[in-house]
């Protein structure tokens, strides 16, 4: 009998050496962590073991553990927010659980009941609540991670795995020194391909991004823009989904590439599309998931029809783009050093739901004690 | 000053609890290991630290270490052999070092002087020599591994890394119960893509292979055959390179797909090509690195012109194929349950160099004390 993941089996061991949260102005993304972590072990024979929250500690793994050799690893990025009433909220965490399970299936790692893991995450958030910084733009970044822990060099389906979660307090992605990002369109490397695994949040999709990122940085850019195929289809920007706002006849059009297998189905991407479809007038706006090439963007810019460009992702929510370098030419986005009007709207819509100021569907989950 | 990898700084700490090698008939690939391991730490500030050989032990890593999240990991597969004089030999290990450095560059991990690492590996082999099983088909499988060990969730070039090596005694890949492998041609998943990273030995290339392998096994096959594109170009077989022998007019032709960026440049692949070009008469044989589709193989088989199919890799050297299932049809290889004549020749040529019975260029390296 293979046991399912069961939040009711959770054990909690609190740290004997509690630390103090850093001052808010010293927070750096992913560099400092809370006092505790979540761990759940899985084995083929036993299924999911008893979840535990315990003091954050190193993992001790044999050097032949498969996670070091064959990249049996995947993760999620989520955030927890403190609302004005002091309650702890997560934003559409069920979407992360669904994606994490899809990733697990593709990586031959065990799937689990997402709602059970969310209950465990809620308990973790209540244990480490003091580390969630309050205030607009502040949050606790959550990193659920699933790794294969079988020991042995044969390439086969892991029969042991570890699901764990660590958390890092973070401040606003864009501080007072905000600048939109400048991109280099990458032609010598592709991020993902049809029938590959670009739509899953596997570690495997990230290692290859450093070289294009480094090349872009050498030319003074912040990120690279991923293209696909001879046509120059735009897919993603760095590790974010990408949106364009065009003038399209009498209307404006919000465009993002469709989920064709090479695009990560971002939660912020999906939220942006749903909110745009709900809040923008269909008389004035077209909301499109469609393929778009770098050449079309260049032409739109040349015709004065490129209005805004932004990336979406959990870390920044939205990230305005002001420039794209492509074959030594610069495609300038007219918003320059500012947020475009739609970019700013999207940011406000999402933030207001994340901090519990606005209700939208079931998108904001309040952490409750088991 | 960033220090280069320097074998002369090697320290050796021997185990206080030496173990006994397993009986040769109990060896399972990658499941049991020698008493020691090699480790060399790297940091951006200091460069390569002093190499050490010490008792094999677990790695202790923070749960935010980048190897667990972004797949900063790559490896090599090599073997050491005991020759009839009791000397320890490795087979073309410089090729592994060259590939490992190419992989490191692509994965934004540090490069190193391959000859220095080979000197360290030689010392390791002399320390753990008793674990190298003697006899035809027996060897010590070596697993050099390089992982990113920076701690932090930002996706950036690692500023800490660990190069390590573990080793597993192995027996003949094909024992007395030898059977050629049967393949399923995979159409729903693609291993690699032009401008991707299929030609590097990154962990990222292995995680995605389990699903096709599992699907093939469900239909009674041993491995999957990777295809690319609508044309059905054959790329690799499981985790091996692939070779075909055809009748081609008056001659025979040995064919393997070219190194176009989607193919791992296997050491056994390269050795097979070089030996075939040296040992086979050009009057009788054509040796080709060229693209080949599954449809062409099917047609060759229908015309009675498909003679042999085999995979090549460090683990098996050669692995004869007797059947390929493609769209519910079976392409039968006429060698059936036996090694084909060329497949057997390649195996013998390579083994004889590996065990030091035949000299060929500088392909066999004898481990010498520093």
Major beta-sheet overview of chain A: 10 strands, mixed
CATH architecture of the largest domain in chain A: Alpha-Beta Barrel
Radius of gyration of chain A: 21 Å
Figure out the total of helices of chain A.
Answer: 6
- The name CATH uses for the topology of the largest domain in chain A is D-amino Acid Aminotransferase, Chain A, domain 2
Provide the structure class of chain A.
Answer: alpha+beta
Which parts of chain A are unreliable, with pLDDT below 50 for 5 consecutive residues or more? none
- Work out the helicity level of chain A: 10-25%
Q: What is the name of the CATH class of the largest domain in chain A?
A: Alpha Beta
Structural shape of chain A: globular
Order of helices and strands of chain A: EEEEEEEEHHEEEHEEEEHEHEEEHE
Number of structurally distinct domains of chain A: 2
Name the quaternary structure: homodimer
CA-to-CA gap between the ends of chain A? 26 Å
Q: What share of the residues of chain A does DSSP label as strand, in percent? A: 25-35%
Largest interface: A-B, 59 and 59 residues
Mean pLDDT value of chain A: 97
CATH superfamily of the largest domain in chain A: D-amino Acid Aminotransferase, subunit A, domain 2
Q: Count of DSSP E strands of chain A? A: 20
Can you walk me through this structure?
- The structure is a homodimer of 370-residue chains.
- By secondary structure, chain A is α+β, with helices and mostly antiparallel strands.
- Chain A has 2 domains: 7-172, 2-Layer Sandwich (D-amino Acid Aminotransferase, Chain A, domain 1); 181-354, D-amino Acid Aminotransferase, subunit A, domain 2 (D-amino Acid Aminotransferase, Chain A, domain 2), CATH 3.20.10.
- In chain A, 20% of the residues lie in helices and 31% in strands.
- Chain A has 6 helices and 20 strands.
- In chain A, the strands form 2 sheets. In chain A, strands 1, 2, 3, 4, 6, 7, 8, 9, 10 and 20 form a 10-stranded mixed beta sheet that branches.
- In chain A, 51% of the residues are buried.
- Chains A and B meet through strand 5, strand 9, strand 10 and helix 3 of A and strand 5, strand 9, strand 10, helix 3 and helix 4 of B.
- Strand 5 of chain A pairs antiparallel with strand 5 of chain B.
């Amino acid at each position: 009998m293979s046991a399912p993941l069961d939040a009711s089996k959770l054990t909690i061991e609190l740290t004997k050496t509690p630390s103090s949260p850093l001052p808010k102005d010293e927070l750096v993304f992913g560099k400092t962590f809370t006092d505790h972590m979540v761990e759940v072990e899985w084995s083929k024979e036993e299924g999911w073991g008893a979840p535990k929250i315990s003091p954050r500690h190193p993992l001790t793994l044999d050097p032949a553990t498969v996670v070091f050799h064959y990249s049996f690893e995947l993760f999620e990025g989520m955030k927890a927010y403190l609302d004005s009433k002091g309650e702890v909220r997560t934003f559409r965490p069920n979407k992360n659980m669904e994606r994490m399970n899809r990733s697990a299936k593709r990586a031959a790692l065990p799937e689990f009941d997402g709602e059970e893991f969310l209950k465990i995450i809620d308990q973790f958030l209540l244990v480490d609540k003091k580390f969630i910084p309050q205030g607009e733009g502040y949050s606790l970044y959550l990193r659920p991670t699933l790794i294969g822990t079988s020991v042995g060099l044969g390439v086969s389906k892991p029969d042991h795995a570890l699901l764990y979660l660590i958390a890092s307090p973070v401040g606003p992605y864009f501080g007072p020194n905000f600048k939109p990002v400048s991109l280099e369109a990458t032609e010598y490397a592709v991020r993902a391909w049809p029938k590959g695994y670009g739509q899953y949040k596997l570690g495997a999709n990230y290692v290859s991004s450093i070289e294009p990122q480094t090349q872009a940085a050498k030319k003074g850019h912040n990120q690279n823009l991923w293209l696909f195929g001879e046509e120059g289809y735009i897919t993603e920007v760095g590790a974010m989904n990408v949106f364009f706002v065009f003038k399209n006849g009498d209307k404006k059009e919000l465009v993002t590439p469709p989920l064709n297998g090479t695009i990560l189905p971002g939660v912020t991407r999906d939220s942006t599309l749903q909110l745009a479809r709900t809040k923008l007038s269909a008389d004035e706006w077209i909301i499109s998931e469609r393929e778009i090439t770098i050449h079309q963007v260049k032409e739109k810019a040349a015709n004065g029809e490129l209005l805004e460009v932004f990336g979406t992702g959990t870390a920044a929510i939205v990230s305005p783009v002001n420039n794209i370098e492509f074959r030594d030419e610069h495609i300038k986005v007219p918003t320059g050093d500012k947020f475009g009007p739609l970019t700013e709207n999207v940011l406000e819509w999402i933030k207001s739901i994340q901090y519990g100021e606005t209700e939208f569907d079931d998108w904001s989950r309040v952490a409750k004690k088991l």
